[in-house]
Amino acid sequence: MNVLLLLLFLFMAATAAVLLVGVTGFALGGRFNERWGNKLMQARVVLRNLLTVAAYTVKPHGGRRTPNRDARLLALRDAMLGRGGKMGPDVRKVCQSNR
User: Fold this and answer.
1) How many Å separate Cα 54 from the centre of its chain?
2) 30 and 68 in one domain?
3) Shared domain check, 51 and 75
4) How many C-beta atoms surround the C-beta of residue 69 within 10 A?
5) pTM value?
6) pLDDT attached to residue 18
7) Domains contained in the chain, number
8) Is residue 54 domain-shared with residue 66, that is, in the same domain?
9) For position 31, what pLDDT does the model report?
């Protein structure tokens, strides 16, 4: 099985699980919801974005968009690590190889 397809299913399951726990906690209210409600919904948004990237990556493009996909994945990695601003050397290398 393709690793990216496995990640796609993993992100789908994790998103559904976090959503279910968050909605259940919200419905029951109480201390759990006060403590974890916001963090669970933030985690759901991050997982949903990772799911979108994984789904776009798995989608066949006939090999034409692989460099763009790689650059997007590297940029997403940099954003998650808090490295905003200028493009990193590895992303620049992928982007400039298209020209």
Assistant:
1) 7
2) no
3) no
4) 16
5) 0.56
6) 93
7) 2
8) no
9) 92
Find the domain containing 89 and state its range. Answer: 62-99
Clarify whether residues 66 and 53 are in a common domain. no
Task: Compute the distance between CA of residue 48 and CA of residue 44 in angstroms, rounded to an integer.
Answer: 6
Provide block-wise average pLDDT over 10 residues at a time, the chain (99 residues): 75 91 90 90 86 74 63 74 74 69
Which residues neighbour 2 within 8 Å (Cβ) at sequence distance 6 or greater? 58
Q: What is the DSSP string of 52-84?
A: HHHHHHHS--TTSSHHHHHHHHHHHHHHHTT--
What is residue 92's three-state secondary structure? helix
Measure the CA–CA gap between 11 and 86, rounded to whole angstroms: 29
By the 8 A CB rule, do 90 and 70 touch?
no
